[in-house]
Design brief:
The protein has about 400 residues and is α+β, with helices and mostly antiparallel strands. It has 14 helices and 5 strands. Strands 2-3-1-4-5 form a 5-stranded mixed beta sheet, with helices on both faces. The longest helix has about 35 residues.
Length: about 400
């Protein structure tokens, strides 16, 4: 399937910076980054310690000082790996990644200073001058945005330029050739990192998003909502749910075809997304039913959101090829709000379902808030929300 220009721009923006990434994807990427950063820290710490006997065998001077530097770097890397393993946020992983890069480059500058900034290609100590090259290559395993990758490489480039200035070899032929090689490798590393990120984004969309509307599918919707609801409930804050159903949607499919129905669903999701906050969770439950979870939202505010959505949907004129006039649709909304710590997500979903039933029976194109004193649906007619959430 060919991508439109706007889709290309969206994908390019997602690879350049993480600003537009969904919170759920950030959580997934953080888990991926954490395991690899922790592995890098532990493996590099082990290799760093194992190199001490090599220094002792092949270097005549500075062996003790270099060994101390290596042991200190091992301790720092082990600390970074341990602390990173205790955290799961994307910001924590980014901080750990930058701490890793900074500590490695500090080691590079200190060891070169101790060795007198060697640049003799035949000397064993020349291996220390190749460390920035290694630092760039090992980061290939991380799925990073272009912005993150460039920032990491700038840190390494700054430390290498500093060492070359101190050694007086900044403008030598060997140094310029090495810079050219590292630039080529750096571009390939950025390409590899962003390719991993792009693949993660594609897999994430396939697993979590509804392919037609681009919003969360039922599985991801309820998974995110359950976690979000538990966090809100522990803080004794209100949590509201809007269960929405497009009125007489079957008539659209029967009269104008399923293609027209798809366009209506896409227009509806766009209208709802224009009203939601960043913290809200919106997705397609199935067919023409959608759910909007509103954390820290009172019943009165939930009613205002429902009114805003119904107005937007009511005012839409949906253009469909082959249909002379724009299509007009409406939606019915069931509202439920949790105020009690003892409530669970399945309960308020069931309450929203009952309120939606009332709105449908009341004539459609309206919202209804769950009334605890009313028993609107017989037990046999209630949907098994508990099974869906659990």
């Amino acid at each position: 399937m060919e991508l439109s220009l706007s889709q290309y721009k969206t994908q390019l923006g997602e690879l350049l910076t993480a600003r537009s990434h969904a919170a759920a994807f950030n959580t997934t990427r953080a888990t991926y980054l954490r395991t690899r950063i922790v592995a890098l820290c532990y493996i590099w710490a082990a290799l760093c310690a194992l190199w001490i006997p090599v220094d002792a065998l092949l270097l005549n001077e500075s062996v003790t000082t270099l060994a101390i530097f290596r042991l200190k770097l091992c301790a720092v890397l082990l600390f970074i790996g341990w602390t990173t393993n205790q955290r799961s946020t994307l910001n924590a992983c980014r901080n750990a990644m930058f701490a890793l890069v900074v500590s490695l480059n500090m080691f590079y500058m200190l060891t070169n200073h101790q060795l007198g900034y060697p640049h003799n290609i035949d000397a064993f100590s020349y291996c220390y001058n190749l460390l920035p090259f290694v630092y760039v290559v090992i980061l290939t395993i991380l799925p990073l945005t272009v912005k993150e990758s460039v920032c990491v490489m700038l840190i390494t480039a700054a430390s290498q330029i500093y060492v070359d200035i101190q050694s007086g070899a900044l403008l030598s032929f060997d140094t310029i050739a090495l810079y050219w090689l590292q630039t080529v490798v750096g571009i390939l590393v950025i390409w590899a990192q962003t390719s991993k990120l792009h693949m993660m984004l594609r897999l994430y969309r396939h697993a979590t998003l509804d392919p037609l509307t681009g919003v969360y599918n039922r599985r991801m919707l309820l998974t995110l909502a359950k976690r979000d609801f538990e966090n809100t409930r522990t803080k004794s804050r209100p949590y509201s749910v809007l269960l929405m159903d497009l009125d007489r949607f079957k008539r659209v499919n029967d009269r104008y075809g399923h293609h027209a129905g798809d366009i209506v669903l896409q227009a509806f999701t766009q209208a709802v997304q224009e009203t939601q906050r960043k913290s809200d969770i919106f997705g397609r439950f199935g067919g023409e039913e959608f759910i909007l979870f509103l954390p820290q939202c009172s019943a009165d505010n939930a009613q205002l959101v429902a009114d805003r959505i119904m107005t937007r949907v009511r005012d839409m004129g949906i253009e469909v090829e082959g249909v002379s006039e724009p299509l007009k649709v409406t939606t019915s909304i069931g509202i439920s709000t949790s105020l009690c710590k003892s409530d669970d997500l399945s309960l308020i979903l069931e309450q929203a379902d009952q309120a939606l039933f009332k709105a449908k029976n009341g004539g459609r194109d309206q919202s209804s808030t769950y009334d605890q004193e009313e028993d609107l649906i017989e037990d046999g007619q209630k949907r098994p929300w508990l099974e869906l959430v659990n």
